Amino acid sequence: MDRTLKRAKRNNKRRGRRNHAAWQRFCPDGIHCRYCPHDGSRHLMSSGQPHFFRPATEAERRDPWVTLYRHTLPDGGSAPVRRMTVASRAELITAYCAACAESMDTDQVLCYQRNLAIGEVVGIDTSSKDMAIAA
């Protein structure tokens, strides 16, 4: 799978602040990459938060102000789930070094990649025949 990043066509202050804060937490000294000698200005990066979902409670199902999502079960049924917050801050997902890429005469060099949980549902018991929601 091709994981290359492209420079954003428009400046987005929120995305820039999120990526900068994730870079500060990623680097030991807050400036230089852990895997190459270059600083954050020479890297293209993306950041985000993990998305976990859990089964919705009865009270959440009745509350019209709670956002619920429908999870399709392997047997074809579905269960209402609610998004969980598992991280207070966005984490660095990918970091590509432009300086390393120039020195190696290639388009991009991947310094760091982390797969975050995107859309994982926890707490549903799939071992029983009727796919009951685990308590």
Describe this structure in words.
The protein has helices at residues 13-26, 58-62, 98-104, and strands at 43-48, 51-55, 69-72, 78-84, 91-97, 109-113, 118-121. It is of the alpha+beta class. The protein is elongated.
Question: Can I get a quick summary?
Answer:
With 135 residues, the protein is of the alpha+beta class.
Radius of gyration: 20 Å
Main sheet summary: 4 strands, mixed
**Oligomer, anyone?**
single chain
Order of helices and strands: HEEHEEEHEE
Distinct helical segment count: 3
Strands of the largest sheet, in order across it?
3-4-2-7
Helix content: 10-25%
Number of strands: 7
Structural shape: elongated
Unreliable runs, pLDDT <50, ≥5 residues?
Answer: 128-135
Mean pLDDT over the residues: 82
Structural class: alpha+beta
Distance between the termini: 38 Å
β-strand percent reads: 25-35%
Question: What's the SSE blueprint?
Answer:
Blueprint: H1 13-26, E1 43-48, E2 51-55, H2 58-62, E3 69-72, E4 78-84, E5 91-97, H3 98-104, E6 109-113, E7 118-121
Key descriptive features of the protein:
single chain, 135 residues, alpha+beta, 4-stranded mixed β-sheet, 3-stranded antiparallel β-sheet, disordered C terminus
